[in-house]
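Why should sequence recovery work at all? Because a backbone constrains its sequence more than one might expect. Tight turns favour small or flexible residues, buried strands favour hydrophobic ones, and helices have their own preferences. The token representation captures these environments compactly. In the example below, the structure is given first.
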């Protein structure tokens, strides 16, 4: 799930508006009134997406000496890997749940809407529909008004359509090479067959970031550690996880929804 996002760090837990440069880089490069090597001052301003705020979840699990003594199968050792997996699922639900929820952005329009032409309505997943979606993505407009020109890096489908979608994506592979689009099964997309459920295209977040995945500065999102807590009765091993992250929509440029 982190691969589809632009990963960013925030300095604190305050609500923060997402930001962009006041003009696209291509605007500066194309400016006829600028000479070679001439300096350009760019201004950072609020983006069209949503505000972001970090959220914290802390959990401490203690084991009594009796539990450790009677654990003959190493079950307590699975707690560490289990916590890591649980944190990953929390992040996945936040990232993909936000995309699927089609939130209203700062301009008052939904992430996916007909005005911005990032919906392929009624296009059940097929090679033809996927090609149509690729065209819509490539022709989205940058802040400078130029066509984005990017091909999708990710295709999101529900788990029920993952096998079917593999066949669709493989048709874009040349001479046995790996498909140019990474397929991701997303449980947050509702159940249904390829005719009645949506699918989503996302560009490389380094080219056109749609979702920001934010962590606290100096942290990677989750910290899991062990320690021994001593009190007047016993010394009990403890496992703790401190999970801090936030997600936000940066822009609708870089994504297409198809299917419904």
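From this structural description, the recovered sequence reads:
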């Amino acid at each position: 799930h982190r691969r589809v996002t632009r990963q960013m760090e925030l300095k604190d837990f305050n609500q923060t508006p997402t930001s962009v440069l006041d003009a696209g880089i291509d605007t500066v490069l194309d400016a006829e009134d600028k000479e070679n090597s001439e300096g350009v001052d760019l201004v950072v301003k609020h983006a069209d997406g949503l505000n972001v705020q970090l959220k914290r979840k802390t959990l401490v699990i203690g084991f009594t000496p009796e539990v450790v003594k009677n654990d003959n199968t190493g079950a307590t050792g699975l707690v560490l890997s289990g916590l890591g997996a649980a944190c990953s699922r929390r992040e996945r639900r936040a990232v993909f749940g936000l995309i699927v929820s089609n939130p209203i952005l700062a301009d008052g329009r939904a992430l996916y809407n007909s005005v911005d032409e990032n919906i392929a309505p009624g296009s059940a997943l097929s090679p033809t529909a996927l090609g149509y979606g690729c065209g819509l993505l490539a022709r989205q407009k940058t802040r400078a008004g130029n066509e984005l020109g990017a091909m999708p890096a990710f295709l999101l489908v529900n788990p029920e359509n993952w096998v079917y979608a593999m066949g669709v994506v493989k048709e874009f592979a040349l001479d046995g090479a790996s498909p140019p689009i990474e397929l991701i099964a997303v449980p947050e997309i509702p159940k249904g067959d390829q005719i009645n459920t949506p699918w989503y295209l996302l560009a490389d977040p380094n080219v056109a970031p749609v979702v920001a995945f934010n962590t606290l500065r100096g942290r990677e999102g989750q910290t899991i550690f062990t320690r021994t807590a001593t009190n007047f009765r016993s010394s009990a091993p403890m496992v703790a996880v401190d999970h801090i992250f936030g997600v936000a929509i940066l822009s609708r440029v870089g994504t297409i929804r198809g299917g419904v």
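A few observations help interpret the result. Helices lie at 25-30, 65-70, 78-100, 127-138, 162-170.
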